[in-house]
Design the sequence.
């Protein structure tokens, strides 16, 4: 049987960055892995980041999540069956940050074919160590339901946080879990990711998962979450940062939750990851102006006018 891991985390938590490190660890142990990505939008920005992992030890697959729940489950099932026959030792699934955990467990457990092919390995949830207390009820639902199933809750940006912030973040997760009538049972990993050792990754890869019942305060399908994708934008770094700031500050564009992508500047290429609370910028070799805007109640025409202005 193929082991299958799930890496979750709300929008902007740092899932893809962790996935790259985790995948490299598994490959260093001689494992052949497959990575299944799905996200909102016609352009999967994270796939561009993961391309550097492609090798005889790693392949990438993608499922477009911009469809109804039944359609997504069918696509997910079909892709998993195909991947199980490819000879992978381990499959890693990275879904959208607005992800209903039941889809993962129900798809694997309610299907005889998949049950014979896969053994659930570990559920790993990524949470920003500087978690804001301003999240709404739906954001807290996704945060809590994902963390409640995780064997490992890996805090991101620990090096940019303080002990007090980390205590507040854990309390926020506990409070969010209490609201949906469940408890956090997984082990926290509180460490700068650059300092994670093989022993740390081994513990994470064997941390398992928890079958947690919880009260759904959202339909889980999130039909209101939507996205707008952009190709070949020509803005420089400062120009794009200004546009992203406008998107978050001007409510007429909709409720913007996440903006991510790449810009080309005279200094090189940059990856931008933005939420309501921060814009993170990293140097990167990708030289393509690709962006995705994710949120609810989006005025797509106004967003396009801004991004192409």
Sequence:
């Amino acid at each position: 049987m193929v082991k299958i891991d799930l890496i979750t985390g709300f929008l902007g938590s740092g899932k893809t960055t962790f996935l790259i490190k985790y995948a490299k660890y598994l490959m260093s142990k001689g494992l052949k892995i497959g990575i299944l990505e799905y996200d909102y939008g016609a352009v999967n920005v994270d796939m561009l980041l993961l391309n550097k992992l492609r090798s005889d030890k790693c392949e990438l697959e993608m499922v477009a999540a911009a469809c109804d729940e039944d359609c997504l489950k069918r696509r997910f099932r079909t892709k998993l069956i195909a991947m199980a026959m490819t000879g992978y030792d381990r499959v890693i699934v990275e879904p959208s940050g607005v992800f209903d955990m039941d889809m993962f467990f129900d798809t694997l457990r309610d299907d005889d074919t998949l049950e014979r092919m896969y053994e659930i390995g570990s559920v790993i949830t990524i949470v920003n160590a500087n978690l804001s207390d301003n999240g709404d009820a739906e954001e807290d639902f996704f945060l809590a339901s994902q963390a409640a199933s995780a064997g490992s809750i890996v805090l991101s940006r620990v090096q940019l946080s303080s002990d007090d912030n980390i205590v507040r973040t854990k309390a926020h997760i506990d409070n969010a879990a209490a609201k949906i009538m469940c408890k956090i049972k997984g082990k926290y990993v509180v460490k700068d990711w650059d300092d994670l050792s093989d022993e740390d990754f081994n513990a994470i890869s064997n941390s398992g998962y928890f079958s947690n019942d919880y009260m759904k305060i959202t339909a889980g399908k999130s039909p209101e979450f939507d996205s707008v994708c952009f190709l070949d934008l020509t803005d420089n770094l400062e120009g794009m940062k200004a546009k992203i700031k406008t998107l978050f500050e001007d409510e007429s564009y909709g409720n913007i939750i996440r903006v991510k992508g790449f810009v080309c500047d005279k200094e090189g290429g940059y990856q931008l990851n933005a939420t309501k609370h921060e814009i993170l910028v990293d140097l990167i070799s990708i030289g393509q102006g690709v962006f995705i805007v994710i949120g609810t109640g989006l005025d797509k025409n106004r967003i396009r006018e801004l991004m192409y202005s």
